[in-house]
């Protein structure tokens, strides 16, 4: 948050308004701006803060073995094949995350609430 004091200030204001003087608890994670900060931090950390790896060397999600033949975009993936998601690419998709190199919690908000149509980075984390 040292790099984004304006984001920190806005998040702190939301916490102060909602919590008053008490400390936050797990049930308070519904606060929209604070939640958006968390989602953006997860997206950023998981998408490009591993400079020692190239995108193709990065660990990805849990591998799965196909129990039957499948097809993806015209390609046959035979039964028994091992497949894995490519988390780096999912979190760097500009269709879902425009201006992806900018720390922008607002990308997860619409009308002051979490936008359910925005791709959630947590399942990829």
UniProtKB/TrEMBL annotation:
**Localization:** Membrane
Q: Show the Pfam families listed in the entry.
A: p450 (PF00067)
For this chain, one GO molecular function annotation is: monooxygenase activity
- Classify the main location: membrane
- Topology in membrane: Single-pass membrane protein
Which InterPro entries does the record match to this protein? Cyt_P450 (IPR001128), Cyt_P450_sf (IPR036396), Cytochrome_P450_fung (IPR050364)
| Known cofactor(s) | heme
Q: What SUPFAM superfamilies does the annotation carry? A: Cytochrome P450 (SSF48264)
Q: Which GO terms describe its cellular component?
A: membrane
What keywords does the record list, in alphabetical order?
Heme, Iron, Membrane, Metal-binding, Monooxygenase, Oxidoreductase, Transmembrane, Transmembrane helix
PANTHER family xref list: CYTOCHROME P450 MONOOXYGENASE ALNH-RELATED, P450, PUTATIVE (EUROFUNG)-RELATED-RELATED
Name the protein family: Belongs to the cytochrome P450 family.
Q: What is this protein called?
A: Cytochrome P450
